[in-house]
Amino acid sequence: MLEICCYTVQSAIIAEQSGANRIELCAGVHEGGTTPSLAAIQMAKEQLSIPVHVIIRPRGADFCYSNLEFECIKKDIQACKEHGVEGVVSGILLPNGRIDIARTKELIALARPMSFTFHRAFDMLESYLESMEELIELGVDRILTSGGMQTAEEGIELLSQLVRKAKGRISIMPGSGVNDNNIKKLKEITGAKEFHCSAKKLVKGKMVYQNPNVNMGGEGSIPEFVHYEADSEMIKRIIRALKA
Predict the structure, then answer these.
(1) Under 8 Å between Cβ of 206 and 221
(2) How far apart are CA 20 and CA 2, in angstroms?
(3) Which one of 21, 32, 70, 108 is most buried, counting C-beta atoms within 10 A?
(4) What DSSP string describes 186-231?
């Protein structure tokens, strides 16, 4: 199972055409993924035949949310359910680095019958194995994680341990830095069955005139006249490596 993280509907179409099994639809590429617009969700469902999972994250930065943000999360989950989305991807933490059990339980109940993935908030937890057991108890379907490190390859030891300890009770899905050069290694060493990749490239926008004095992102490090799009050839290489 190969899930491709897509930041536009166009990228989601490219990912499906290239052989992806599932899409994680996001916005906010420079924030690590935030909730996409309702229009993007609707268009993805209209255009795709493979399952669409939608990240539900009201902002970037940490995963400790206010009451107002929590209400936004619930409304977004409800909207996804009403539009036939197959799964949502979310997670809430407490200030002490533990899972917010009460709120997460409420989100899972609201999301059903959609699939529920606990996203990389997991990598910010204080205790991984104990937290995995809590998520199993809550009924979470899968955990998207890099094994507590910046990339899944760096976190391969913990990923392997999580898969062994899970014993099929929950899916452990490696993500972050997963590519055609390391996915076979990750599959063989961890024993994971699902993998999450961005597989994206920068493409030039259509602007001919470009004002160098203005940056709408507010930071010079954010590119102004290029954007990310799913890389079809990279996805195909990842699939070949995964099947090897």
Answers:
(1) no
(2) 6
(3) 108
(4) HHHHH--S-EEE--EEEEE-S-SS--TT--TTSSTTS-SSEEEEE-
Q: Is the pLDDT of residue 13 over 70?
A: yes
Q: CA 32, 38, 39, 45: dihedral to nearest 10 degrees?
A: 90
Question: Which of 104-113, 157-166, 222-231 is least confident?
Answer: 222-231
* pLDDT tens profile 27-77: 999 899 999 999 999 999 999 999 999 999 999 999 999 999 999 999 999
Nearest to 18 by CA among 237, 242, 195: 237
| CA distance linking residue 229 with residue 199, whole number of Å | 8
CATH tag for 2-243 (out of 3.20.20.380, 3.30.70.920, 3.30.43.10, 3.30.1340.10)? 3.20.20.380
Average pLDDT over residues 68-97: 97
Range 94-110 burial, b when 16+ CB lie within 10 A, else e: eeeeebbeebbbbbbeb
The residue ranges of every structural domain in the chain are 2-243
| pTM recorded for the entire structure | 0.94
Q: What is the mean pLDDT of the chain?
A: 95
Asked if residues 54 and 114 have their Cβ atoms less than 8 Å apart, the reply is no
